[in-house]
Specification:
The structure is a single chain. With 253 residues, this protein is an alpha+beta fold. It has a single domain, classed as Jelly Rolls. Helix content is 31%, strand content 20%. The protein has 9 helices and 10 strands. Strands 1-8-5-10-4-3-2 form a 7-stranded antiparallel beta sheet. Helix 1 packs across helix 5. The radius of gyration is 18 Å and the shape is globular. The mean pLDDT is 92.
């Protein structure tokens, strides 16, 4: 993996994204993919995220209550190291979900990420408010809905322009176990799935601790998850917010 400082420079002042290969094993990726598809097919899917008929995509939330593999990936050592360097060592989870592109799925629509799309603007590149991670749970190919990005679009600090995005976007392909990390202001989209298999990815938002999570239920996890939660996972869930504020106050006086 490149030096963390080089990754942060690329995310903020460079392309706005980076693909890091082989951050998890093919077996872990397959386990997470299988579990995500099982959740999508279960009765819980009605409350965790229905299938969008127009796009053929499904967005499944609440993963931390549905398998230890998702707990491990949320606090993956290399990913957390990058997120802490970019957002501070008290950063938290803003959202955590699986996105499934079923056969024939179309684009989601070019966008920037929360909290930027919920703000009036103007946007600023620094300090970064959010970092997104897209875990490839299978190979991302030219045909199965790989992520589209407009390199360096985060530097514009604006909402996306569809015409510019269509002209500038490139497709990020890679292998199961790879991760795409991006600045929240990077313009991006899914592409179409022309295959006969669903394409599955995990999406994780890490944000400044002072940003309200996009998923207001992010910390509502089963008691068993809290019982085995590491200090890092508790922090990511926002459960150490008061302690973090106390440390901030101690620096002022």
């Amino acid at each position: 993996m490149p030096a963390v400082s080089a990754i942060i420079e690329e995310l903020i002042d460079g392309a706005g994204y980076i693909r890091l290969p082989n951050l998890m094993s093919a077996a872990e990726a397959a386990e997470a993919r299988t579990r995500a598809l099982e959740i999508a097919a279960s009765p819980d899917a009605a409350t965790l995220g229905r299938r969008h008929e127009r796009t053929g995509q499904q967005h499944i939330r609440g993963l931390l209550g549905h398998g230890e593999i998702f707990e491990r990936l949320a606090q993956h050592r290399e990913i957390v190291e990058i997120a802490e360097a970019m957002l501070g060592d008290d950063m938290t989870l803003g959202a955590y979900s699986a996105r499934i592109l079923y056969p024939g799925a179309t684009e989601m629509g070019v966008h920037i990420d929360y909290p930027y799309w919920a703000m009036r603007g103007p946007f600023t590149l620094r300090p970064p408010m959010m970092m997104q991670v897209i875990w490839m749970l299978q190979d991302f190919t030219e045909q199965n809905g790989a992520t589209l990005v407009a390199p360096r679009s985060q530097l514009r600090c604006t909402r996306p322009n569809r015409e510019d995005f269509a002209r500038e976007a490139i497709k990020i392909t890679g292998n199961a176990g790879d991760a795409i990390i991006s600045h929240g202001l990077l313009w991006h989209d899914t592409s179409q799935n022309h295959t006969d298999e669903p394409r599955v990815a995990l999406l994780i938002n890490y944000g400044l601790k002072v940003i309200r999570p996009l998923d207001s239920d992010i910390a509502k996890v089963p008691p068993a998850v809290l019982e085995r939660a590491t200090p890092k996972l508790r922090q990511l869930l926002g459960l150490e917010f008061a302690n973090s504020l106390a440390r901030d106050l101690s620096r002022l006086y």
